[in-house]
Amino acid sequence: xxxxxxxxxxxxxxxxxxxxxxxxxxxxxxxxxxxxxxxxxxxxxxxxxxxxxxxxxxxxxxxxxxxxxxxxxxxxxxxxxxxxxxxxxxxxxxxxxxxxxxxxxxxxxxxxxxxxxxxxxxxxxxxxxxxxxxxxxxxxxxxxxxxxxxxxxxxxxxxxxxxxxxxxxxxxxxxxxxxxxxxxxxxxxxxxxxxxxxxxxxxxxxxxxxxxxxxxxxxxxxxxxxxxxxxxxxxxxxxxxxxxxxxxxxxxxxxxxxxxxxxxxxxxxxxxxxxxxxxxxxxxxxxxxxxxxxxxxxxxxxxxxxxxxxxx
Length: 312
Prior knowledge:
Elements: H1 3-22, E1 23-26, E2 30-36, E3 39-45, E4 49-52, E5 58-64, E6 68-71, E7 75-78, E8 84-95, H2 98-104, H3 108-128, H4 132-136, H5 163-178, E9 183-195, H6 197-269, H7 271-289, H8 303-311
Antiparallel strand pairs: 1-4, 2-3, 2-5, 6-8, 7-8, 8-9
Helix pairs in contact: 3-5
């Protein structure tokens, strides 16, 4: 291989190196700025495709074009009405001006740290400026009334601001403070709120006592209904028994009257048969009341004496 061929190979290699170092591909999910000795050069590159730079002199800084996530720390914050609560928040943000972002923040880690200061601070200010009721409710809706708790449900107090409005306030305040950072907060939400442990235990105890009170009321009402039913049963039973006794006495009286009528009719028809019947009954009484060792002392007006006298 002669010297001319070697020179051509070297020139081609250098050209390829220069070309590869002067072209970069910008993905549709990225945006970039070009720096020279650490300082930005030209306008930000936001359109996807091939881009050019001065080889070895320029460097490309890539930034995310998609929405980014911010997850706040779980903090203990007092409300306006002196209720201590744990608050967990999250937000979505984006890089709107990569050049300004690079000048002020340099990278996403610094941006997350700055958002921590801004969003956590605005969250504390918003919570400290509002009552707990405004933080947990968004509207003055009417409570849903069920048959089981129709009389027990409490009237909800009206709110003056509401949770959604407070989130909007935090979002607006945060964007005012990030306007010169090249970023924009897209959305802010309270992810979770809860009492601190000692307050939560007291709230749970109050809820338990309230449910027990309602249960005791239902239980006492049930016992009252049971006693009322028992009293009605006994009253109905006494009424049925008295009516049954009355009907039985009426039937018995009618039967006695009919028997007396039959006896009187039979007596009038056959006096001798009646005397025979009385005699036989008396004899049966003698047979059941006396034996061979029995001694009788009878008066002259006794029925036994009258029949014995007739036998003689």
